[in-house]
Amino acid sequence: MRTVIECVPNVSEGADSARVGEIAAAVRGVPGVRVLNVSSDASHNRSVLTFVGDGDAVRGAVMALFEAALPRIDLTRHRGEHPRMGAVDVVPLIPIRGATAADCVALSRVLGEEIASRFSVPVFLYEDSASSESRRNLADVRKGEFEGLAAKMARPEWKPDFGPAGPHPTAGAVAVGARAPLIAYNINLGTSDLAIADRIARSIRHIGGGFRYVKAMGVELADRGLVQVSINMTNYRKTPLHRVFECVKSEAERYGVPIVASEIVGLTPAEALYMAAEHYLRIENFTTDLVLESKLLDEEG
Amino acid sequence: MRTVIECVPNVSEGADSARVGEIAAAVRGVPGVRVLNVSSDASHNRSVLTFVGDGDAVRGAVMALFEAALPRIDLTRHRGEHPRMGAVDVVPLIPIRGATAADCVALSRVLGEEIASRFSVPVFLYEDSASSESRRNLADVRKGEFEGLAAKMARPEWKPDFGPAGPHPTAGAVAVGARAPLIAYNINLGTSDLAIADRIARSIRHIGGGFRYVKAMGVELADRGLVQVSINMTNYRKTPLHRVFECVKSEAERYGVPIVASEIVGLTPAEALYMAAEHYLRIENFTTDLVLESKLLDEEG
What we know:
2 copies of one chain form a homodimer. By secondary structure, chain A is of the alpha+beta class.
């Protein structure tokens, strides 16, 4: 598998597992696609599919996803804790191997056009694909949710990038965009003092003056008597794990607190771990060509 | 590709690239086998093939290798700097994914039997497959080389594990065995004083009281004005890269010398780098299931 693009669509159904299963089966049936994970949350009433393939396979899978999701999800009757504006709410495209961010931006435009013309669902491009800065952040695009969408789209600044000028009656609208792989990374501190985790989280996150691609907050792990700096690494290539780890370590030392452990939640690209090994071992000639398993993936058809 | 066994046979031909190409093509033609590398050394008059596959594929490939190599290599006329006892000199089997050392030991016995019966070449099991401690070390098995093999095999303690009691007239004998993946790993020191690299190499290598799975020597990098601790890591699971790196760093500090860089020569299993990332980042929940690319390989048929 030379080219690997990861697609992590979120659909607004998380309670009816039969329906989720039918939607996932439609994606699984597309040649060249591998579904790595399907995870549903009933209180959010939302499911996240993780699948990979090359550009063509991902295109086919996103169309199959819409074809299966639209007749099964009616947002006029949808309740759930998580904000949403569409039956297929968001379609993130992530370059993993043999594809660049630019390739995924181009793919998002192809998808946008096809979603609009085949399903009459308006499409907003977001993140790296955004047509303006005000559309980069998914939370801004989704603000007002399905219920507020008709009024929002009536304003000229919220004309969609593709498709009809108003929302689809039952499926709302969808955000499609390229983004860097996200790593959920937690660092546990040897103290029960939540204020310390909070203060460190503020010091490393972008909004507080910290690293550009870090979101962070303090969390209490009451059962372990520890606190945690809970981190979203939104671009590990530009803000790598080891740099954040060393910064947290140094900030914690200032309070006499050790790092007990760290934790990766969900999946990480291998490259994020290779970068840490390269840094600490000072490997001067590192490329993924040195890694046997990477060559195995290269050899795939 | 669920099960991945690496096989790194050495054949006694490194000058005639047409012959080497024919031998490699025979291996490449076996279904389920992927040849990752072919590297020839003319002064050694020896080539190293690196290929991977599951047990059955590797078995087929080793047979194809013998079939192609035996008519093309005549050890009675072979000259080269590297010690050798066979046309196919050594067949190491290395578990990479979904296979254990015990699986590779079992495979080495299957291969030994089949090589002996199909090609009348005597087989010595070595390393993890060795039938006695005195046969574990390849250098001991090969001592005396092709020219001394008839006399050596006449002694009862050098009866082969499989096959005829004396050498094959043109192909000698072969060593077959399971071993852990070997990583060639060099650490460059910020000094031109070779004595320091030598002293550190002695302190970390097994023979000098150092780590069990480390072989090391000092090397001069004259063009860079540096010296290098050149290391063979013979079992990175039991003696990991980061432990050796930190030990070299600490020994070098005692002389006021920094580590400038390290270098991986050839291929490394991804796991060796994951172990370094896990150590330095203190990742408490690490398994390869967290790595996206590892899941891609798991999904292969």
